[in-house]
Amino acid sequence: MSGISLDWLKALTWIFAIATGLLLALWRQRRLHLAALASVIVFAVTNAGAGIYVLNHVGDPRWGSKAEDRINAPTLTETPMVGRFLGSLEDAIRGVADSVNQFVDFQAALPVAMEFFVAAGWALALAVPLGLAALIVSYADARRRKAEFLKYKLQVEELKSELEEIKHHLGYPPREESGSS
User: Fold this and answer.
1) Roughly what angle, to the nearest 10 degrees, separates helices 32-56 and 87-170?
2) Which one, of 66, 79, 63, 71, lies nearest residue 95 by Cα?
3) Which ranges constitute the DSSP H helices of the chain?
4) What are the DSSP calls for 95-148, one per residue?
5) Digitized pLDDT (tens) for each residue of the chain, 181 residues in all
6) CA–CA dist 75, 93 (Å, integer)
């Protein structure tokens, strides 16, 4: 992902979410509420993943860390006469400079990562009412299917009794119930 710019990384979160919603909407046409919920969750997950990616690649120049903000440790070992005695001091200064540069890189990457985390948070906040709506719609759909099943079950029982009446009328022997001993 090192070749992807920051703008493309932001766009990819939207692309993945929209593609997920469209694919689920086309695949399960009657369940648009679930497609919307899934696309919001995918948006949240991809934004969180992008924020984690930014924090894992803190020194990347895509996050706005400028070369002029970095500091370099001076070389003390090249100092005439006393330079060879300043080697440990030079190592300590280099360590401090590296720590400052890491902090500058983190300071540049943190606002970018926070943008992704905030977008993920808003998506999760939107997922709560969408999830409740999906739950309500699914519950109503399940009740409707249960009512249809009961209606069909009653029709089957009615047709069985009519069939038994026709058999009785035509003189067929009555059907023995299985499982009764």
Assistant:
1) 160
2) 71
3) 6-27, 32-56, 87-170
4) HHHHHHHHHHHHHHHHHHHHHHHHHHHHHHHHHHHHHHHHHHHHHHHHHHHHHH
5) 667 888 888 999 999 999 999 998 888 777 888 889 999 999 999 999 999 999 888 877 777 766 666 777 767 666 666 656 666 777 788 888 888 888 888 888 899 999 999 999 999 999 999 999 999 998 998 999 999 999 999 999 999 999 888 888 888 876 666 555 4
6) 9
